[in-house]
Amino acid sequence: MASEGIRLGLIGAGKNTRDRHIPGFQDVDGVEIAAVANRSRASSQVVADQFNISAVYENWQELLEDPSIDAVCIGTWPYMHRTLTLAALEAGKHVLCEARMAATAQEAQEMLDASRQRPDLVSQIVPSPLTFKIDRLLQRKISEGYIGDIIGVSVQSLGNAFMEQGGPMHWRNDRDLSGYNILNMGIWYEAMIRWVGRATKVTAMTSINVNSRKEENGEVVDVSIPDHVSVIAELANGAMANMQFSAVTGLSSGNGVWIYGSEGTLHVDGAQNVYGGQRGDDKLQEINNPEEGRAYWRVEEEFCNAIRGQEKITRTPFEVGLHYMEFTEAVTRSAQTGQTVALPL
Amino acid sequence: MENGIIRVGLIGAGANTRLRHIPGLREQEGVEIVAVANRSRASGEAIASEYEIPTVYDNWLELMEADDIDAICIGTWPYMHRTMVLAALENDKHVLTEARMAMDAQEAHEMLDASRLFPHLVTQIVPAPATLQVDQTIQDLIAEGYLGQLLALNLRVSDGHGRADRSDTFINTEAPLHWRQNRQLSGYNIMGMGIWYESLMRYVGPATKVMAMTRVFTNQRKDEDGVLRGITVPDHVNVICEFAAGVQADLTWSTVTGLQTGAELWIFGRDGTIRVEGPPFDKVFVGKNGDKELKEHPIADDKRGKWRVEQDFIESIRGAPVTLTPFDVGVQYMEFTEAVTRSAQSGQAIYLPL
């Protein structure tokens, strides 16, 4: 199929699929979004009508059985990612799977194993886009030795709103749908891997402050996914890290990253302006971050290029997805047991 | 006590004793500093002549045995605090000891136990001073329910130990060994951790569960004799903990985070948020649900605490209760301090009290 047309099927067509993936694929030459299977036939039909998709399937099995489909884009919630990915690979279809990769590290491992059984097929996770603007600048500064040896990393992803008991239940609050994923921890960790590499030891505490929410039908349900997470970690490069994620920190300082080295410091503020300073400086100063040097959203293009043999998946291969799922699970295990958890699991 | 005059002896006369305690005691009526014992007779004599102290003892034991001393001010490094406090009490002397209370929790408990054997004697630890100006205001805001149910607390301390400027905040392998980096002298105390925890307890009470990771980045320094020594007191500490009040906290202390200085404290509640930064920690910023941003909360003059350690000590000897800082509070911060080290060593959560 080298540079021939790619016929793509959508399984799950939620917000990110409609806002990002469909327009992204429509921008790639030779790609046809040929089929869709959403939660119900009716909801599939709405998407099909909106985006001129010719085939609507009753369910995902039927879509995967269609021999004319070359590749699938999985946009469901995490609880189905493993099942759908394995089925798609078995059906001989390339897979682009929405982030968070899976519900657990075990599932992520199974997905990676399955992908290795099919080296002829492309397997890709939708990358963490949070820090595209700054990833390359931080990578460049660190590899140039601007900060020397990395000593400490601090990542804060703090909401700005006060907690509200009894709000609507979201799939991100539902452990059955989200597994061990908490807030946006996994994708921040994925971003952190790009700058400073992986963690080897994880210690965590979590709390659930908003402990009940309402389903769409008004039923009150318990919440078992934390809304406040404190993580401290040791990194393979010898640095110490602390990471904090919260949805209950009203009027907080928001998001921020600090990377401390033996010779310099890098800081990213909530608007992703980057500041730096070195030994001998008396303060941090903004570092120019020209737009042309920045990474950007090109997930769908990368997926299609990989299918055509024109590039290798870098954002994000299943291996990296497994790394963040292991970290994610380690956080929960450590919080549950009160013990430091070593990585890899 | 003779004719109502309180006669004080100084054991160890380092910087804080000379800058704070001697002037502070001299401001009190009916107090005389009558003797000093420092590390050597020569250094004791230098202090005595500079501050006009009549008697110099060869060592602390001699001072302890003097009948004409009512109260002792201990300014040595932590490794001697327990031994000296116990001896002072046995010699029927009131005792004010410098912070950090002791080397470890066991020593602190022994000091507390000893103090209870001598209820007629005052036992006091020099309190955490950084936040005195804002303590009352934060306590009031929390007690009035400004924050609602307490949820979370963040504290970042980039502890420069009096470094001259920000460019000095990077890892420094050339600096000499300081007693704070010497475990034989400092025990489990790490940077300003214990006194910051003492401040936090004023707002949210004690912690119940501690998990920590620590690192010694500057792992060798030269001692006074120029000998390179390995260092076991961390210079970078990450702590996560739960407080009895339901607060989950992230606490960090470091002396190696370049271009980061001072400290920043956030307390998050269900309905409101408090932020304090410094030094100087002289302003409190607050915000409630519905506000767009934090704003400065006015502090009435009579709510601003100040350094009054020596006055407290003397007033306590004359019958007032010790408020800052009694030995039982010192025990709590020493237990926290030890829990941090134990957790970092074992990779396990440590539950408090020990």
Compile the SSE list and pairings.
The complex is a heterodimer of chains A (345) and B (354).
Chain A: E1 6-11, H1 15-26, E2 31-37, H2 41-51, E3 55-56, H3 60-65, E4 71-74, H4 81-90, E5 94-97, H5 105-117, E6 123-125, H6 132-143, E7 150-158, H7 175-178, H8 185-196, E8 199-207, E9 212-214, E10 220-222, E11 228-235, E12 240-246, E13 255-261, E14 264-268, E15 274-278, E16 285-286, H9 299-307, H10 318-337, E17 341-342
Parallel strand pairs in A: 1-2, 1-4, 2-3, 4-5, 5-6, 7-12
Antiparallel strand pairs in A: 7-13, 8-11, 8-17, 9-10, 11-12, 13-14, 14-15, 15-16
Helix pairs in contact in A: 4-5, 5-10, 6-8, 8-10
Chain B: E1 6-11, H1 15-26, E2 31-37, H2 41-51, E3 55-56, H3 60-65, E4 71-74, H4 81-90, E5 94-97, H5 105-117, E6 123-125, H6 132-143, E7 150-158, H7 183-186, H8 193-204, E8 207-215, E9 220-222, E10 228-230, E11 236-243, E12 248-254, E13 262-269, E14 272-278, E15 284-288, E16 295-297, H9 309-317, H10 327-346, E17 350-351
Parallel strand pairs in B: 1-2, 1-4, 2-3, 4-5, 5-6, 7-12
Antiparallel strand pairs in B: 7-13, 8-11, 8-17, 9-10, 11-12, 13-14, 14-15, 15-16
Helix pairs in contact in B: 4-5, 5-10, 8-10
Could you name the key traits of this structure?
heterodimer, A: 345 residues, alpha/beta, Rossmann fold, Dihydrodipicolinate Reductase, domain 2, 32% helix, B: alpha/beta, 2 domains, 6-stranded parallel β-sheet, 10 helices, 31% helix
